[in-house]
Write a structure and sequence with these properties.
Elements (H helix, E strand, L loop, with lengths): L1 E3 L12 E5 L7 H17 L2 E8 L2 H5 L11 H11 L3 E6 L2 H4 L3 H10 L4 E7 L12 H11 L2 E5 L3 E2 L2 E2 L2 H9 L3 H8 L3 E8 L4 H5 L4 E5 L8 E9 L5 E9 L11 E6 L9 E11 L7 H24 L10
Parallel strand pairs: 1-4, 2-3, 2-5, 3-4, 5-6
Antiparallel strand pairs: 7-8, 9-10, 9-14, 10-13, 11-12, 11-14, 12-13
Helix pairs in contact: 5-6, 7-8
């Protein structure tokens, strides 16, 4: 996918395009359906399937106190947009000047003049322009003037519930990672570097990988079935992960993410992507390290059962880099 990170970087051949506009945080199944529709429309008309997204999130500029915690980094979001089928994307730096554009200025100066949009697909709650004054009827009127078609994407639901980034955030922070995976179309994942821990686990319970991540949304405290991907080699392992404060060892200052790779490790990865598949239990304090070690054994057994069911087809188990 061709990626352009400013208006000045746009090539003359960006258009004509079929375009969708949004933040696409998480790139959930609703977002993927929108990109699929854009791709089909572009193929039928001989246009380029394209995405306009923003960095930072517009709310961080216009109302930082209401800015949501993001499910994906910009690079991860772009990878997922490309995987969904977009051929090109403009990451528009969202500045106070962009925020001040009226709906008509935004459409004429950016969508028409720079992107050469011939069709634009958005949700029915789409808002744009200064103070979010523009809505889908505004866009239709401007489209009739500027020569592009406006299409409305239907809301995607899962078991009768609308899929949205805000709903996914709530599920993850509540520990409901299996449900979140249904909304996302893949397991929720976080990335980061492996850092040195205190060494207590290796000596008293089980050796773990200690993840340092800049992820803004972390699953609720507890123990999870996970998959661990080495970002350098592509090797992946079944694992069990504890998110919490290590109460058995008296630590309580900051959340740690510690992963036990069930098959053992031939090498220690430098950076990993950790995918959360299912929640096993809440984090709790044990009387001593021996009791914790016994519980880890039970957690591993439960995780092994999960993966066996996944392999037999009775429980979905998406890959972490899907």
């Amino acid at each position: 996918m061709r990626i352009f990170r400013s208006l000045s970087a746009l090539p003359p051949d960006f258009g004509p395009c079929a375009l969708t506009i949004g933040n696409f945080d998480g790139m959930h199944i609703g977002h993927c359906e929108i990109v699929r529709r854009i791709r089909a429309l572009a193929a039928a008309r001989g246009w380029k399937p394209s995405v306009l997204t923003f960095d930072p999130h517009p709310t961080q500029i216009v109302a930082p106190e209401r800015a949501p915690k993001l499910l994906t980094t910009l690079d991860r979001r772009l990878d997922l947009i490309a995987a969904a089928g977009a051929e090109q994307a403009l990451v528009l730096p969202f500045t106070t000047d962009i925020a001040k554009l009226t709906p008509a200025e935004f459409v004429r100066q950016i969508l028409c003049s720079r992107l050469d949009a011939r069709a634009i697909l958005v949700g029915d709650n789409f808002r744009f322009g200064a103070k979010q004054a523009g809505h889908v009827d505004t866009l239709r009127a401007l489209g009739a003037e500027c020569g592009f078609e406006v299409l409305i994407a239907p809301v995607v639901e899962f078991r009768g519930q609308p899929v949205s980034s805000s709903a996914i955030r709530a599920l993850i922070t509540d520990g409901r990672v299996s449900r979140a995976a249904r909304y996302l179309g893949r397991p929720y994942d976080v990335e980061g570097a492996i850092v040195t821990g205190r060494g207590v686990g290796a000596k008293q319970t089980a050796p773990t990988l200690n993840l340092a991540t800049s992820a803004q949304v972390i699953p609720a405290r507890g123990v999870y079935v996970t998959r661990t991907l080495d970002l350098a080699s592509g090797a992946a392992w079944d694992s069990v992960t504890n998110v919490g404060y290590r109460p058995t060892f008296g630590d309580s200052h900051e959340v740690t993410i510690e992963t036990f790779v069930m098959s053992g490790l031939a090498h220690r990865p430098a950076e990993i992507r950790l995918s959360f598949l299912a929640r096993l239990r809440e984090e709790r304090k044990f009387e001593n390290p021996e009791a914790l070690k016994a519980q880890i054994g039970r957690d591993v057994h439960a995780a092994q059962s999960y993966f066996r069911r996944a392999q037999s087809g009775t429980r979905p188990c998406p890959t972490p880099n899907s």
